[in-house]
Amino acid sequence: MADASIDLALRALPHFKTVPPDLLAQVVSTSRVLRPVVGEILFREGDACRRFYAIQSGAVRLYRAQADGREQVVHNLHAGATFAEAALLSLGRFPVNAVVTEPSTVLLEIGGDRFLELLRSDVRLAPAMIGSLCMRLVSLVERVEELSLVQAGSRLARWFLRQPAQGTEEPAVELSLAKKDLAAHLAMTPETLSRLLGRWQDEGWIRNERTRVVLRDARALLALADGESAPA
Fold it and tell me: Which end of the chain is more exposed for a tag (fewer CB within 10 A), N or C?
């Protein structure tokens, strides 16, 4: 990707929308394009951090490894998302693991000591970064509250209702994650996810297909998402 394309890609991120062209050109000089393969580990929990990333296409999973070997999914990220900013700016080490989960994933890697020097020396860069990180913090707080307070069925219903859907009368949600990964993302076991999908299909609320779910009764799912009993 040429410098001009990197410039456009950075400009599309909330971090750099208000950054003047001369300063952005210096950020471009610290950035490079990566095309990792599926399953490639970008970094491991505890590694020293000198960079952060933006996803141009594909997907990345952030997770922690539990003592029993299972993965605790922190985020499944797709095109337009950024990650590891806080690790670069404050922590100095990556707090999670990151693995590439889709083919044709393209990443922008931003950082290095030069980026940190820019952040310290040019007062025009810090406000944009701080604003973007504050929005990320709000999103993380909402996710923590949801995972700790909301029942598994409500979490799943909310997830379906937040996804882009095709069609109007019976909209269909394409599954961007494998079902085992979706279960981990929603902090439930694959068995719990399977039981919920099976019960909802028996009730006529959804049609569970291999790579998508058809939402046949949005009213029932809305009630579940709100923590209420589904309508009869």
Answer: C
Residue 81: what are its φ and ψ, rounded to 5°?
Answer: -85, 155
Residues 128-141: tens digit of each pLDDT: 677 666 666 666 66
How many Å apart are CA 198 and CA 186, to the nearest integer? 17
Read off the pLDDT of residues 109-164 as tens digits, 9 standing for 90 and up: 998 788 888 888 888 887 767 766 666 666 666 666 666 656 888 888 888 888 88
Give CATH for domain 151-225.
Answer: 1.10.10.10
Tokens of 138: 């709000």
- The residue among 59, 54, 53 whose CA lies nearest residue 39 is 59
Distance between CA atoms of residues 174 and 188, nearest Å: 20
**CATH annotation of 3-148:** 2.60.120.10
Asked if residues 173 and 215 have their Cβ atoms less than 8 Å apart, the reply is: yes
